[in-house]
Specification:
The protein is of the alpha/beta class and 175 residues long. It has one domain: Peptidase C15, pyroglutamyl peptidase I-like (Aminopeptidase). The strands form two sheets. It has a four-stranded mixed β-sheet with strand order 1-6-2-5, with helices on both faces. Strands 3-4 form a two-stranded antiparallel ribbon.
């Protein structure tokens, strides 16, 4: 019998009461969504979410009224995380799964969720599609791959924050 992977959900919240900036939202930094794709045979890193073109009904028979996520919003929003770099780094990790990058999460619930998340978080979101269990990967393989992806992304975020802090120190020292 295969061991189950551990599931972790981390959330942050918006303004609350007298807290115009909620520390939980700032501390979280990044929103990660994972969905299944019946068409995927590799773990797919989604680069962007799309605002328009939603016509398919979800499991509860819902479809956005005007077939879009945010009226007047940009057609496409990209993650602030460079998914091509993430793919290069995780592919080099030597895992027993395949990875790919996509620019179309499917104009369905996943794409809707991703676009809305990108819009609300100002690009601080990622979406990862996994293939169905056993087609071809086990839950353990998917769990290890997702853990590696998250570590790579966290390392990238940390490096970019260090670079910003370093740049700010230089500006302060030389201005």
């Amino acid at each position: 019998m295969e061991k189950q992977s551990t599931c972790i959900v981390v959330t942050g919240f918006g303004p609350f009461g007298e807290h115009a900036v909620n520390a939980s939202w700032v501390a979280v930094q990044l929103i990660v969504h994972v969905g299944v794709s019946g068409m995927a045979s590799a773990i797919t890193l989604e680069k962007c979410g799309h605002n328009k073109g939603y016509q398919g009904l979800d499991n509860r028979q819902f479809c956005p009224d005007k077939q879009c996520c945010v009226e007047g919003g940009p057609e496409c929003l990209q993650s602030s995380i460079d998914m091509d770099v993430v793919c290069e780094r995780i592919s080099a990790a030597g895992l027993d799964v395949q990875f790919t990058v996509s620019t179309d999460a499917g104009r369905y619930l996943c794409d809707f969720t991703y676009y809305t998340s990108l819009y609300e978080s100002h690009g601080k979101s990622v979406f990862i599609h996994v293939p169905p269990l056993g087609k071809p990967y086990t839950a353990a393989q998917l769990g290890r791959a997702l853990q590696t992806i998250l570590q790579v992304i966290l390392d990238m975020v940390e490096q970019s924050e260090d670079q910003i802090n370093c740049d700010n120190k230089q500006d302060y020292l030389f201005n």
